[in-house]
Design brief:
The complex is a heterodimer of chains A (about 475) and B (about 450).
Chain A lengths: L2 H11 L13 E3 L6 H10 L4 H15 L23 E3 L13 H10 L3 H8 L2 E6 L2 E5 L2 H6 L3 E4 H7 L1 H7 L10 H9 L4 E5 L9 E6 L10 E6 L4 E9 L7 E3 L2 E6 L4 E9 L11 E11 L5 E8 L4 E4 L2 E4 L5 E10 L4 E4 L2 E4 L5 E11 L3 E10 L7 E11 L4 E10 L5 E10 L2 H9 L4 H17 L4 H16 L4
Parallel strand pairs in A: 3-7, 6-8, 7-9, 8-11, 9-12, 10-13, 11-13, 12-14, 13-15, 13-16, 14-17, 15-18, 16-19, 17-20, 18-21, 19-21, 20-22, 21-23, 22-24
Antiparallel strand pairs in A: 1-2, 3-4, 5-6
Helix pairs in contact in A: 2-3, 3-9, 7-8, 10-11, 11-12
Chain B lengths: L6 H7 L1 H6 L8 H15 L16 H4 L14 H5 L9 E6 L2 E2 L14 E4 H7 L2 H6 L10 H8 L5 E5 L9 E8 L5 E3 L2 E6 L4 E11 L4 E11 L4 E9 L5 E10 L4 E10 L2 E10 L5 E10 L4 E10 L5 E10 L4 E10 L7 E10 L5 E10 L5 E9 L3 H9 L4 H17 L5 H15 L2
Parallel strand pairs in B: 1-5, 4-7, 5-8, 6-9, 7-9, 8-10, 9-11, 10-12, 11-13, 12-14, 13-15, 14-16, 15-17, 16-18, 17-19, 18-20
Antiparallel strand pairs in B: 1-2, 3-4
Helix pairs in contact in B: 3-8, 9-10, 10-11
The chains are: A alpha/beta (about 475), B alpha/beta (about 450).
Chain lengths: ~475, ~450
């Protein structure tokens, strides 16, 4: 690389996190620590029914017997689970019908993020269930959704208003015993979104929640549950940005998707939490359990993720393909820079006949970061004619970063067709030269090449999101390449 | 039958018996290496499926046995050995029966001067300087229980020493024959192949058995490929379906060296192959090819690691598997590109064919890359034979079975055709014909 390029890299790498700011909102929080009392208090604060409290306690007791997993390719100092406050919420629980009633400070936050609620409502027709530090403060377009029988509300509301649905599906995909972080989440989850799309209904708009971690030292434990009944369709967007912090913040969310016969769920994520500064200090720990169950025949679950933030990303959005002819998809772009670490991928468990899965994963590592793809494709004995295609490409920018691929293929049926391909390379000097020659600067050339590289994945994102994703991507890239 | 003693305990408590069989070698400095290995062995835990490297490989069928540490002496005639030779191949031959070198069955044609081919026990007795220089340097005892066990019980094995600039034209065929009886026993061949700078040699490591008794073959092979040297290694493993085979192969490659290997296996009841090659200098080339064909309830595990520690090296790896009946296969291939190993080219592929619904294949091709100016790719496929190809052949009047056999031949041919010894290629074609042309 030429010296000017190196200089530019340094210059750009020194850029500060663009979305780093703190909104001052009065908040109501529990003292640090974790015990049965705290869990009862969380449950009480959220005015939950007895069965929910019991479920949390069951999870907590199980959690005590578990050990933190160590197998991943990420390194972080030990987390003191007693040093975290497990609940924080804006002081009052406002119930707004219109945006005007929303706390101006909160609205300002969204404005800074470039996603004004008004604009989104008017222009994009997106209903936003905005989660501001664990409690939903604004839910829009509810009435319109209500007409169609679609339930889109916060998890705490769902527990109160739709206990039967919650009881039936909560923990049915990710049981409270599932893994260390999911169990912790089951015990202490603060809030999240709940979506239920009834039989035969096609949700007319993209449902979206913007998560935002705001209070210092609060782990965020979101719990999302999306159920698409027979023949239903829903597309859900999750996007995140977080303000600048010094201490590491733990985020252990759980997302469960259930697709019944002929239903389709599309779940898209753009994640841009604070990645820590360029020394690798601070940043969010993103340890998330995301899993979807294609329960019914011809059902389909599609995960799309653009991961640019977090100090550590450790998640594997998975599909359990139970129904015959069901389809699982996973499209991912993971960008790591500076000292970021990502260990992400997917699991495709083929159980039903004629099930299909597609995995497209694009990793980009720059700086001193480490980016791993870890994925499992499992074809069980009864999964006749299962088909999988996986492609995992890694792009390395700079010589201090690492890119790793750990696919696991477990094939128990001879009718399966499983293909896995992976490549690792850097951006070709000849490619850059070609573009330079046509008057395109090196930085633009890299952007162009990277955009082409991830296009396959970005194309899967809904329109509104693709724009934001591209923006985030280029911010992350600006800081790392010349 | 008396109740079994714990696997580790058994080998520790029987060590005295082994020492007695060494005929006074106990006092030599080499024996210190053995004893250190034994102490490492006693400190390590047996691997379980909770260990990532043993995720799909359960050693419980092995450890339930108490294998006699001193194998019985077996009689073997030249005729019996001849059954295992390849037609039309001029070669040097080393024969080991139940772990012990048999001079009477071996033959060495005109070897270039100062090239040494023989038994490791001779080299130990002679305190061979090359042995002291290379032994235990590549296959380390720490972290690997079975290697430590092998080192502790090192008694014999093949020793090949090709000094600087020497070229051995004919392949060296090393046959390890285990002739079984009622007694369960363990053989632990320890091989060391040294190709010094600018030398060239071909080694065939061949494991086979007579009878269908139970035994454990725990082998360790260390190979050193000096600057500009060329080592062609073929491992052929065709053992009884009652036997257990654990092997570790470690290769050290110096600057601009060329190492090519073929691991051909029809397996055992249980076989595990750990194969690591490490580039210790720039400009090295490495080829790791493999083909395994297993059926019944056989289990086969290939663990390979190509360590690009230095820049400007190329590696090529292609493993293929054909699984029938209730066979289970594991492929775990890792390509590691260390920081600064720029201009690395690495290619890795694993293809497996499942011919039965009960067969299981677990494939884990991995890339760990810490340098940016590299070209690395890997691919893996698992599936059945291509229905369309089969249909095409059928429309040309070729029957189902013949079409299947034809496609299997074609599938295996990628690996087979890269073997440089024609006699061996013919031998393998024959094995495939026997298995699949009914």
């Amino acid at each position: 690389m030429s010296t000017t390029e190196t200089q530019r890299i340094e210059e750009l790498a020194n850029r500060e996190y663009k979305y780093g700011f703190v909104t001052e909102v009065e908040e109501d929080r529990l003292p640090k620590g974790l015990n049965e009392d705290i869990i009862r208090q969380i449950s009480a604060k959220k005015e939950e029914p007895e069965w929910m409290t019991e479920w949390r306690l069951k999870a907590f007791r199980h959690w005590l017997t578990m050990e933190e997993p160590k197998w991943s390719n990420v390194k972080y100092p030990p987390i003191d689970y007693q040093d975290i406050s497990y609940y924080s919420a804006p002081k009052k629980k406002p119930k707004y019908n219109s945006l005007d009633e929303v706390d101006p400070a909160i609205r300002e936050t969204y404005n800074k993020l470039g996603i004004p609620l008004e604009e989104q409502m008017m222009l994009a027709g997106v209903a936003v269930d905005a989660v501001f530090d664990s409690v939903s403060v604004a839910t829009t377009f509810k009435d319109k959704l209500k007409e169609l029988g679609i339930i889109f509300c916060s998890m705490s509301e769902a527990i109160k208003e739709h206990p039967d649905l919650v009881k039936k599906y909560l923990g049915s995909v990710v049981p409270y015993t599932d893994n260390f972080f999911a169990t912790l989440n089951s015990a202490v989850f603060s809030d999240g979104s709940f979506v239920y799309v009834p039989k035969g209904v096609r949700c007319p708009m993209e449902l979206s929640t913007y998560f935002r971690i705001n209070a210092s030292e609060t782990g965020q434990f979101e719990r999302t549950l999306i159920v698409a009944d027979e023949g239903a369709y829903v597309s859900y967007l999750e996007g995140c940005t977080a303000p600048m912090r010094d201490e590491n913040q733990l985020h252990a969310a759980v997302v469960e998707l259930v697709a019944l016969d002929n239903a389709t769920i599309k779940y898209s994520t753009v994640q841009n939490w604070y990645p820590g500064d360029k020394e690798g200090k601070g940043g969010i720990y993103n340890f998330v359990t995301k899993r979807g169950a294609c329960r019914g025949v011809n059902s389909k679950i599609s995960w799309t993720q653009v991961e640019t933030g977090s100090a550590i990303t450790w998640k594997y959005p998975s599909c359990i393909l139970q129904g015959d002819n069901s389809i699982g998809e996973f499209y991912s772009v993971a960008v790591t820079n500076n000292y970021q670490q990502a260990d992400t991928g997917t699991k495709m468990i083929h159980i039903g006949k004629n099930t299909k899965s597609t995995i497209v994963s694009k990793g980009i590592s720059a700086g001193r970061s480490n980016n791993s793809y870890r994925g499992l494709v499992k074809i069980t004995k009864k999964a006749e004619n299962a088909r999988n295609f996986s492609q995992c490409d890694s792009l390395l920018i700079g010589n201090k970063c690492g890119a790793h691929t750990f696919p696991y293929l477990e094939i128990n049926n001879s009718t399966a067709q499983v293909e896995h391909e992976a490549t690792t390379s850097k951006i070709g000097e000849d490619q850059i030269f070609y573009l330079n020659q046509r008057g395109i600067s090196t930085e633009d050339a890299v952007n162009l090449i990277v955009n082409g590289y991830v296009k396959e994945v970005l194309a899967e994102l809904p329109m509104e999101f693709a724009v934001e994703a591209q923006k985030l991507l280029s911010i992350s890239l600006e800081g790392s390449v010349g | 039958m008396m109740s079994n003693i714990d696997f580790k305990e058994w080998f520790i408590s029987n060590y005295k018996t082994f020492e007695k069989s060494l005929n006074g070698e106990k006092t030599t400095s080499f024996h210190q290496i053995r004893k250190e290995a034994l102490s490492k062995f006693s400190e390590m835990n047996l691997p379980t499926t909770k260990d990532e490297e043993w995720k799909y490989t359960n050693i419980s069928p092995i450890i339930k046995h108490n294998f006699s540490v001193i194998p019985h002496k077996a009689d073997l005639s030249t005729e019996e050995v001849n059954n295992f030779l390849f037609d039309k191949l001029e070669h040097h031959l080393l024969v080991f029966v139940n772990g012990e070198f048999r001079n009477d069955l071996s033959r060495l044609n005109d070897l270039p001067s100062s090239v040494e081919v023989g038994s490791l026990s001779d080299a130990i007795k002679k305190n061979h300087p090359a042995l002291m220089k290379h032994f235990g340097k590549y296959a380390e005892d720490s972290h690997n229980l079975f290697t430590a066990l092998n080192s502790a019980y090192t008694k014999d094995g093949a020793f090949v020493f090709v000094p600087k600039g020497k070229i051995v034209e004919e392949p060296i065929h090393i046959i390890f024959i285990n002739k079984t009886t009622q007694d369960k026993f363990v053989t632990q061949p320890r091989n060391l192949f040294i190709a010094e700078d600018n030398s060239k040699v071909t080694v065939i490591e061949h494991y086979t058995s007579i009878g269908d008794g139970v035994y454990l073959n725990n082998t360790v092979t260390e190979m050193f490929v000096g600057e500009n040297a060329n080592l062609d290694h073929i491992k052929l493993q065709e053992e009884s379906k009652k036997s257990f085979h654990i092997s570790r192969m470690e290769v050290d490659q110096e600057r601009s060296s060329n190492f090519s290997s073929h691991l051909i296996s029809t397996g055992a009841e249980f076989s595990r192959n750990e194969f690591t090659t490490r580039f210790n200098g720039e400009g090295g080339e490495s080829m790791l090819n493999g083909l395994f064909m297993i059926d019944d309830e056989q289990f086969f595990d290939a663990h390979t690691m190509i360590d690009h520690a230095k820049p400007y090296c190329n590696s090529y790896e292609h493993y293929k598997g054909i699984l029938q009946d209730k066979a289970r296969g594991v492929f775990n291939g890792k390509v590691m590109v260390r920081p600064d190993a720029q201009k690395t080219n690495a290619f890795q592929e694993n293809n497996s064919i499942l011919l039965s619904d009960d067969a299981v294949m677990n494939s884990k091709p991995q890339l760990e890359i810490f340098a940016d100016d590299v070209k690395c790719s890997h691919g893996a496929t698992v599936g059945k034979l291509d229905e369309e190809a089969k249909f095409y052949l059928k429309t040309r009047g070729i029957g189902e079975e013949a079409a299947t056999a034809m496609l299997i031949h074609a599938f295996a041919s990628d690996v087979i055709k890269s073997i440089r010894i024609e006699a061996l290629r013919d031998y393998l074609e024959e094995i495939i014909s026997k298995r699949f042309n009914q």
